[in-house]
Each structure stands twice: as structure tokens, then as C-alpha cells.
Amino acid sequence: MRHLLSSADLTRDDVRMLLATAAEMHEVQHRDVKKLPTLRGRTIINLFFEDSTRTRSSFEIAGKWMSADTINITGKGSSTSKGESLRDTVMTIDAMSVDCVVIRHMASGSAHQVSQWVDASVVNAGDGTHEHPTQALLDAYTMEQRLGSLEGRRVAIVGDLTHSRVFRSNAITLRTLGAHVTLVAPPTLMPSGITAWAAADGLELTDDLDAVLASGPDAVMMLRVQRERMSGGFFPTPREYTVGFGLTRERLRALTAANPEAVICHPGPMNRGLEISADAADAAQSLVLDQVSAGVAVRMAVLYHLLAGEEVAA
Amino acid sequence: MSDLLIRGADVLGEGTAHVLVVDGRIAAVGAAAAADAPSGVERLDADGLTLLPGFVDLHTHLREPGREDAETIASGSRAAAVGGYTAVLAMANTSPVTDTAEAAERILDLGRAAGLVDVVPIGAVTKGLEGHELAELGLMHRSRARVSVFSDDGHCVADGRVMRRALEYVRAFGGVVSQHSQDPALAGPQACCHEGELSGRLGLPGWPPVAEASIIARDAMLARHTRSRVHVAHVSTAEGLDVVRWAKAQGIAMTAEVAPHHLALGTELLSGYDPVYKVNPPLRPTEDQEALRAGLADGSIDAVATDHAPHARHDKEHAFVDAAFGMLGLETAFSVVHDLMVRTGRMSMADLARVMSTGPAAVAGLTGHGRPIAAGEPATLVLVDPTAPVTVDRATSQSLSRNTPWHGARLTGAVHTTILRGAVTAREGEPTAC
Ligand SMILES: [Zn+2]
């Protein structure tokens, strides 16, 4: 494994291996001294053009716990700036002989482009509305902790699919692991071409959340609604969105009635009262905090396999 | 030096013939041409070559003034001559914008100074391409540049009222509005890709084909209402072409052009996020490409236009959504169209002359280009080699930019010699100093 750019880069064996390593790494988190020598002498740059305290600190801690030197660079690198090109920015960093670039950028495909310009390994930590592969891995990890194998399990992904990189990576990884995936969204938030795409990838589509919940899925993954979408003509009002697609107290009850074991995921940060009610967010079925905790372990596993795998094995 | 004897070329409509050029005009065609040739006249052996009227490009971005690092009128003229062009229409989206008589005359003069092709300025429809107030359309037309094609290309004239006024206004002097047909409200400011399954998967904001077709339909109705002439720049979708066909069937004065890359390159090329493939309008799926090829062959589309859009390297080395739109086109257009349409039997060489020379000359109202190859006509010609293999190498481009999607492509059909009013302007890939 040279880079991690897309969830599609990972075979079922790759995912299994990463999740197994993540489980070992998770143990480290419960030690008094959280330090492994694994990546000593390695340099990791967290190149974040877009704010994300959660993802950035998760990668940073993952690197530090494995003794890597981690450096954070936060750039403006806007979608409209005509200043330094992305290639120039990245080449400057690559010239410092770093081993790994963890990149978050507001433009889809940027991680892929960067991987073609640099010698370092590249980890996509979220590129625009494209993908967020480590999020999909940590979601799978968290769900498996509670549910066991995801083979044959039914997962519903609900909300703004069009703009969600979390959805794109999760749909791929969940299918890789053999889960059944149902996508639930208003027609205006379904990505273009989704009908053909879903047919090719074996995803189900619906705009009827109640019917999906009544069928008793094993997991319901709620997606964050971006504030800026609310005035974008994608749906009439936040109230109407909540009525149609929010995981309300009533829907939580319906889900629990249909499947008492069902779990709830959300990549955070949550809009309480919009896509998820406080009752659902804080329910015993909610895995939201487990997801955060798993994030570090999963990123340790990814960095380990990118930067140390062969040498440790040797 | 404007006397020339072209020996043994395949001349459209004549078969193999000699063509004698005297004082920039064709003096004779046929066996007599050789007999009439004065001794010592320059002879050009054209065995195996085909002689066509010089190509006319309705859609060229020359970047001067404003971005002379990407292209100048001189470098763009060299690229055009090498590509077989004898006239190019220079789009108005320079900096400053070509929206005054003075700006248009300056482009005309720089083109004459370069001296390799006729550089014909296109005037902006609206001041600063802002879409609100009409530019000085009449003054540009009355200037030495005789501007008759107007376009806000890069932007759609989205306001129906402004478009209506522009059409009414240019009708008085036989002008035409070339529209970048794309409803901005239907796409959004970040759109950079055909809207479809691929854009959904890649997470790239898309333009739906209806954003093109709906503007073409509106403009067709406005052209009918104003009894004026509208030209569809770079039609890219089957839906858009359907509307063009409908408008023509109604007798509406609508013409259309297609870019070589929309004929030949599909949207799937975007899967690697390489900004060299980022164009506006975007590359479309196979069904659209097929429809455009059919429309070009059957005459529904009047012209091939390059949308030659040179960009400095650093303007393309951004993330895909942030990178500049456009690709080079002047030097490769003939080879691409020949390889795709003529070599495969979809079109004849006469059809190619129609869409690359006579058709575009008619749209632009250029009387000195796209003429028949006959005695008395201007010797504004191109010799092409239909069997020559071409491997495109961006390093040899005459353009100051390198953003060609054809780098490494192997095509059949090469431009051999370009002749503007009797003067050779390019020969086998090299421009000649005039
Ligand atoms: Zn355009």
C-alpha cells in the first residue's frame, strides 16, 4: 500500500487487515504510557487546507503515539485563490523529504492529484465532496465492535448524499465488507447519476425513511446537513427536512421497536434537532463517541501499514 | 513573394490539377496552369496532397492583451498557421475586454503585425462581459476592425432582455451573436464537469445538459422574434443539438459550431482529475459525442471551432475545481477531425472543407476566406496530407502554453502547407516569417 486515496483502493483483505491492526492499536489507548516506537524517525505532515479539529488531531495523536514527528500545516488554499498553485505548495513540502502527507482539502480529487506530484505516501483525510476513507474505516470498526461481522448486515445511510464524502467512502467500504446498503435522501440531495451508480454497486435507493426504519436495519448512519445547504434550494426549510429525514425521538422508537440491537452513527459534528434529535444522539444505541475514540486507532493502523509495515515484518 | 505554382495537388472538385497563383490570387487551375506559369516561379510539388481553402476558426482565445505569458497574438498566429488556418476570430475575454472600437482595432493591428493569419476580433456583447449593459456594438462594427461577431464567451448572456437587445442591435448591420449557451443558474458557480454518474462519484459539481439546451431554445425564440442571427458556440450535448436542428427546420437564423474535443474526447477522461481535460462546456458522455459527430456530418452543425484556450502551467496545476478551463486546439484540429471523421468514412474531404473553412467563413461573414479554388479567387489555401501519420508532441507546439490533451496521440492526416493570399505562412509544422 503506497497511498490511501479512496476506499475503492482497499480490498476486503486490506480492510480486514487494517481493522485487525486497529484493534491492536486500540489497546494502546488504554495503557498508561501511550507510546510505541513504531514510526520513530518518520515525518508526517498534516496538510489541512480546510478546518477540521477532529480529524486533524486524530491523525496527529495517531502519529505521535507511534513516535513519528508530526507537523501540522494549515493553509488557506481556497477554492478561488489564484495565488500559489496546489502543486507548488505541495512540492515545497515534498522537497523537505517527508514520509507521509495527510491531506484535507475542500476540492474533490485533490489528494489524488497530490499523490501524482510527491514521493511521500499520501493519505486522503477528506477531499471536497469526494471521499474520506479513514472515516469509513473507523465507522466500520465501530459498528463491528458492537455488531460483529458486517457481512449480510443492513445499513441505512441517511441525508445529504450529494455533498457527503463520508457517504461515498462508507458506501464503498460497507459493500466491500458484504453489508447491504440503503441510501435515504430527498431527491434534491441524491448525487447525479445515482440510479445507474447504485445499480452498478448494489445500493438501494429510497426517500422513505420511515419504511427503512420499520424494516429494522442493523445500523443507521445519519449524515450532517451543512448549514450552507439550507438556503441552497435543496429543501424548503430545516423544519421540513427534519420531518422528512431527521432521526427524531419517534423514529428512534420505531427503529428500536423494529430492531432492538440497531445502532446509530453520525460522523459529527451533529446538528442536534435537525438531522438527529438529542434523544437519538445520546441514546444507548448511539456510537458517536465510540467513533471518535476509534478514529485514533484506525489512523494508527493506516499510518502503520503505509509507513512501517514491511520493516516491522522484516 | 506571392507567385507560386502548386503542382499536382488533389483539388476538390477538379481531381489532380495544377494551381497557379499570381499576385496573391489564383490565376489558373488545371493543365493550363502549368503552361501559363512564368519561368522561375516558385514550384510546390503537391503530389499526394489535397488542396483546400484555408481553415477559419470561429473561436480562438489569444490571451493578448492581459495574459501574454499564456499566449500572444503572434504566438497564437504561428499556431494557427501551422494548423492550416488562414483566419482566426479572437474571443473578447481578454484583459481589458474587447468591448470598444479601440480595443478591437488594436487586436486587428497586432494580428497584421504578426502577419501569418487574419486575426479578426470578436467584440464583447456586454461591457466587461458582465452581462448587463451592451458594449459599443455599432462602434466596433464601424471601426477599422469591422467587427461583426459578438460574444461574451466564457460567460453566457443569461439575461433574456439583454440578449434580445443585442440581437436587435446587430441585425442592423448583419452582425451575429455567438452565445456560450449555459444557464448559470442551473449549474452553480463551481460546476466543472458533465453532470452524470461520474460527477456524482467523483464529487464534482456538474452542468446538466439542460443548462445548454434551455439557453439554445430561448435564443432560438429570441432570434425568431428579432429576425436576427444567433450562433451557438461549442455545442456539446445531444439535447442542445436537437434544439439547433429544430430551430433550423423552423427557418430560424441559427448556426452552430462544435469543438474537436467534444467530438473526440469523453467525460470518462475526468476520472483521474487531470485538469488538462477541464473545459467549458465539459467533455460529455459517448452518446453526446456520437450525436455531435452525426450532426457535423449531416450539416446540422455548421463549423468546427477549436476553442483554443492556452493556459500557463501554473493555472492548470490547481485542484480540479480551481484549475483554469480550456485546452489548446489550433495545431491539432485538422488531424483530429480528419482522423475521426474523414479517415473513418463519416465525412468526405469536401465535408471537411465545409465545416473547417466555408461554413465558418460564412458564419463570420468573411468574404476573403472559404472561397472556391478557382481562377480569380484569393489564394488563401491549405495543403493537407491525408495519409501522413502524426504523433502529437506538446514540446513542438508553437503556442506559449502546453495544455494539449492530445500529447502522445497518434493520428492520421497532417497539415502540410498554409498559404495566405499567395504567401506561404507555414510549411510542415513550421511557421514562415512573412
Ligand atoms: Zn465558451
Offer a quick outline of the entry.
The complex is a heterodimer of chains A (314) and B (434). Chain A is α/β, with parallel strands linked by helices.
List keywords for this structure.
heterodimer; A: alpha/beta; Rossmann fold; four-stranded parallel β-sheet; 13 helices; 9 strands; 42% helix; B: 434 residues; alpha/beta; Urease, subunit C, domain 1; TIM Barrel; five-stranded parallel β-sheet; binds zinc ion
Termini distance of chain B?
Answer: 9 Å
CATH superfamily of the largest domain in chain B: Metal-dependent hydrolases
Please, what is the average pLDDT of chain B? 96
Helical segment count of chain B: 13
In the CATH scheme, the class of the largest domain in chain B would be Alpha Beta
Mean of residue pLDDT values of chain A: 92
CATH class of the largest domain in chain A: Alpha Beta
List unreliable stretches of 5+ residues of chain B. Answer: none
Describe the 3D structure:
The complex is a heterodimer of chains A (314) and B (434). Chain A has 314 residues and is an alpha/beta fold. Chain A has two domains: 7-131 and 292-307, Aspartate/ornithine carbamoyltransferase (Rossmann fold, 3-Layer(aba) Sandwich), CATH 3.40.50; 133-291, Rossmann fold. Chain A is 42% helix and 15% strand. Chain A has helices at residues 12-28, 53-65, 86-94, 110-115, 133-147, 165-176, 194-201, 209-214, 238-245, 249-258, 278-281, 288-307, 309-313; strands spanning 43-48, 69-74, 100-105, 121-127, 154-158, 180-184, 203-206, 219-222, 263-265. Chain A has a five-stranded parallel sheet. A four-stranded parallel sheet of chain A has the order 2-1-3-4. The model of chain A has no long low-confidence stretch (mean pLDDT 92). With 434 residues, chain B is an alpha/beta fold. Chain B has helices spanning 31-36, 73-82, 101-114, 137-142, 160-171, 197-202, 209-226, 238-249, 260-264, 286-297, 313-316, 333-342, 349-364; strands spanning 4-11, 15-22, 25-29, 42-45, 50-53, 55-60, 85-90, 118-121, 149-150, 176-179, 193-194, 206-207, 230-232, 254-258, 303-304, 381-391, 410-420, 423-427, 430-431. In chain B, the strands form four sheets. In chain B, strands 1, 2, 3, 4, 5, 16, 17, 18 and 19 form a nine-stranded mixed sheet that branches. Chain B has a five-stranded parallel sheet with strand order 9-10-13-14-15. The model of chain B has no long low-confidence stretch (mean pLDDT 96). Chain A binds chain B through residues 79-82, 85-88, 105, 107-110, 112-113, 127-131, 162, 165, 168, 191-194, 196-197, and chain B through 190, 195-206, 208, 272-274, 314-315, 317-322. Zinc ion binds next to loops of chain B.
